[in-house]
Amino acid sequence: FLCQESKVTEIPSDLPRNAVELRFVLTKLRVIPKGAFSGFGDLEKIEISQNDVLEVIEANVFFNLSKLHEIRIEKANNLLYIDTDAFQNLPNLRYLLISNTGIKHLPAVHKIQSLQKVLLDIQDNINIHTVERNSFMGLSFESMILWLNKNGIQEIHNCAFNGTQLDELNLSDNINLEELPNDVFQGASGPVIL
């Protein structure tokens, strides 16, 4: 289901509950509210893109959506805040894109707990400066690919990738990132490709 209209300022209440895909493109959603997608048990893909007024994604937006395997949040330059409980219990998530936003911190992904191999694609977020300890623990019980390119990353803490099984890590084009600490991969398996 495609919702593409600049007059849309909130999630419509008449969306088909059996939708497999929801796309919000060129809308004027300022907030994605708590529980916005609850009751969409068949949902496999969500896209929120090209929204220049989106500021907040609240808690429990992406929660208990057992069939959801792809989330795309992109071209939302005014998105400043993603609640630490926005992404929870998504056992089939395989792809999460957060690109070209105004967020200042990596989103909390530790409650996703996917049973699948996950590609986490966080790029072109120039206000993200730090990768904290344990940033990706709990994202997946399987291996993962992390694309963290073209952000504003300046510092990566020790144990940042603790608890992960990394197949690939891309940190390219973080022009202010000069070095990695010795213990950056402590507690991690991999990466196979850096």
Automatic annotation (TrEMBL):
Give a yes or no for keyword Cell membrane in this entry.
yes
Instruction: Please provide, in alphabetical order, the Gene Ontology terms of the cellular component aspect for this entry.
Output: plasma membrane
Keyword line: Cell membrane, Disulfide bond, G-protein coupled receptor, Glycoprotein, Leucine-rich repeat, Membrane, Receptor, Repeat, Signal, Transducer
Against SUPFAM superfamilies, the record matches this protein to:
L domain-like
InterPro entries named among the record's database cross-references = FSH_rcpt (IPR002272), LRR_5 (IPR026906), LRR_dom_sf (IPR032675)
Tell me where it mainly resides: membrane
Location of the protein in the cell: Cell membrane
Statement: the UniProt record of this protein carries the keyword Cell membrane: yes
A biological process (GO) of this protein is: hormone-mediated signaling pathway
As for membrane topology, the entry says: Multi-pass membrane protein
GO molecular-function terms, A-Z: follicle-stimulating hormone receptor activity; G protein-coupled peptide receptor activity
Annotated protein name in UniProt: Follicle stimulating hormone receptor
